Amino acid sequence: MKTIADVLIVGSGAAGLTAALNLAENRKVAVIAKGSLSDSATGRAQGGIAAVLEEGDSFEAHVNDTMIAGAGLNDLRVVEHVVEAAPGAIQHLIELGVPFASENGALHLTREGGHSHRRIVHVADATGYAIQQALEAAAAKHPNIILVPDMVAIDLVTGRNATDFSTSGAVHGLYAYNRKKRRVETLTGRATILASGGAGRAYLYSTAPRGATGDGIAMAWRAGCRVSNMEFMQFHPTCLYNLEVKNFLITEAVRGEGGILKHPETGHRFMPDYDPRGELAPRDIVARAIDHEIKRDGLDYVFLDISHREPEFVREHFPNIYEKLLGLGIDITRQPIPVVPAQHYTCGGVMVDLDGRTDAPGLYAAGEVTQSGLHGANRLASNSLLECLVFGEAAANHINAHWDSLPPVPKIRAWDESRVTDSDEEVVITQTWGEIRRFMWNYVGIVRTTKRLERAKHRIDMLRQEVRDYYAHFRVTPDLIELRNLVEVADLIIRSALSRHESRGLHYTLDYPETLAEARDTILIP
Ligand SMILES: Cc1cc2nc3c(=O)[nH]c(=O)nc-3n(C[C@H](O)[C@H](O)[C@H](O)COP(=O)(O)OP(=O)(O)OC[C@H]3O[C@@H](n4cnc5c(N)ncnc54)[C@H](O)[C@@H]3O)c2cc1C
């Protein structure tokens, strides 16, 4: 049992580092990351962060846009709280040195789909990278923050792991696999914050980092916390289809500048068949149309073609995409781009209140791992980094203010490896991993039916049992830890989708196409 800090934080993205910086004045904090510190969804964010900063814009308008995107399932109290905190959160980032684009002495704001005003602060098209760098630099400088890369959290430590086998559900830290030392360590702390990101890698195609396997959601669920709205997975319509490069986004601006979506076999421009706005229809409609073409004809991808525009124009507007694809043998000034929709954002997650508290005493959560009530049935673009900043700070403030009432750490039993051996059939892990991601893509994707969801449920039940057996017999490895979590979150997604008998926001099912009058969260109780 190792007490390296007062507070343990799982995740070094925007949520985890914001929480750490807000705690460090009073507490010693350890931030763990499963790989390198910078490998997060945060570092990949392109567009920016939404905040009311333009004259003529208002908190009411930002709240209203968020509620419309969320199809009425958002918690109004939470939306108001986050929207009102946004300008302050941006100011904190500026103080940390994030070089947001400016024009004539004011922040330059862009406008994104679903926003009724220009309100996105950005650092060109690499906002997330700049934020990640600034937060990491500030955390590395702080004497009270220990940054621990290559440490994979396995499970939360609760009263059940105490030497007196207490029945308390309080969380006292975690068991984690130290990749460098190749052993499991017991890290304890008075408070633990999950900031471990989303579960996008449950799907075959995802823009999320490789580590987005829903670890925090699965850990909280196993520790007895409620999980909510897991059926709401956001898909980006156009991700490059390539067997090697699985998560390269083709920005929606390509369609904005005249890119045409075509059937790869017939060359037919199909978008006008689905929506009079053609390729400029909203993200969800385009993603559904592509999905329909792919599933109807058993295709691997469709084409996005911008080659009819002047080569100079294409190279000038999309220099990164041009270079990247040229390296893969596709000259986009002459050839179409094979694309598929890809999972992009996990709206559901661990239920938290306005202070980032979960159901377990001592356990907090912030960022994409949570369901805070902000996004409802669909995330409004650029609201998610904002959620990380606001809830990261809220969790830290609550811990600071309630330190004396947090559960004291009892003596914890060490990780027990006495009944396991090294695996001699790791192929089971790669095989199961591939199977899950493929059927989640085909059966629990953009357009759903009850029959497909039931097929997925049948398969996940079988695989969960197999993974449980495997986990019980073999020593943990990072891949096994992730797989165990992936089957858990896939099951939560399927169960949530099966229980929603309507189409709302991102959950679209052919068996229940109507939206019910009353908006209700899907809440799963362990
Ligand atoms: C390509 C892309 C573009 C995006 N663009 C935007 C945008 O423009 N604006 C916007 O608002 N949002 C955007 N998003 C969404 C946004 O980036 C994320 O929602 C947000 O960054 C999530 O931050 P987080 O701190 O919750 O998690 P992350 O930034 O994903 O960090 C997760 C951390 O948890 C760690 N971790 C996970 N599991 C474990 C474990 N078992 N043990 C130890 N550590 C663990 C990881 O190592 C990592 O450090 C985009 C997302 C993607 C993928």
Number of helices: 14
Kindly state the percentage of residues in helix.
25-40%
Number of strands: 21
The average pLDDT is: 94
Which SSEs are present, and which pair or pack?
Elements: E1 7-10, H1 14-23, E2 29-32, E3 49-50, H2 59-69, H3 76-95, E4 102-103, E5 106-107, E6 109-110, E7 120-121, H4 127-141, E8 145-148, E9 151-158, E10 171-178, E11 183-188, E12 191-194, H5 215-222, E13 227-228, E14 233-240, H6 253-256, E15 260-262, H7 271-274, H8 283-297, E16 302-305, H9 311-317, H10 319-327, E17 337-346, E18 349-351, E19 363-365, E20 370-371, H11 384-401, H12 427-443, H13 450-473, H14 478-499, E21 523-524
Parallel strand pairs: 1-2, 1-12, 2-8, 12-19, 18-20
Antiparallel strand pairs: 3-7, 4-5, 6-7, 9-10, 10-11, 13-18, 13-21, 14-17, 15-16, 16-17
Bound molecules: flavin-adenine dinucleotide.
Quickly list its features.
5-stranded parallel β-sheet, 4-stranded mixed β-sheet, 14 helices, 16% strand, binds flavin-adenine dinucleotide
Give an overview in words.
The protein is of the alpha/beta class and 526 residues long. The chain is 35% helix and 16% strand. The strands form six sheets. Strands 8-2-1-12-19 form a five-stranded parallel β-sheet. Helix 1 (14-23) runs parallel beside helix 4 and helix 12 packs antiparallel against helix 13 (450-473). The longest helix is centred in the C-terminal third of the chain and has 24 residues, at 450-473. The protein is globular, with a radius of gyration of 23 Å. The mean pLDDT is 94. The chain binds flavin-adenine dinucleotide. Flavin-adenine dinucleotide (FAD) binds at residues 10-16, 32-35, 39-42, 44-49, 127-128, 151-153, 195-197, 207-208, 211, 215, 249, 345, 367-369, 382, 384-385, 388. Flavin-adenine dinucleotide (FAD) is lined by residues 10-16, 32-35, 39-42, 44-49, 127-128, 151-153, 195-197, 207-208, 211, 215, 249, 345, 367-369, 382, 384-385, 388.
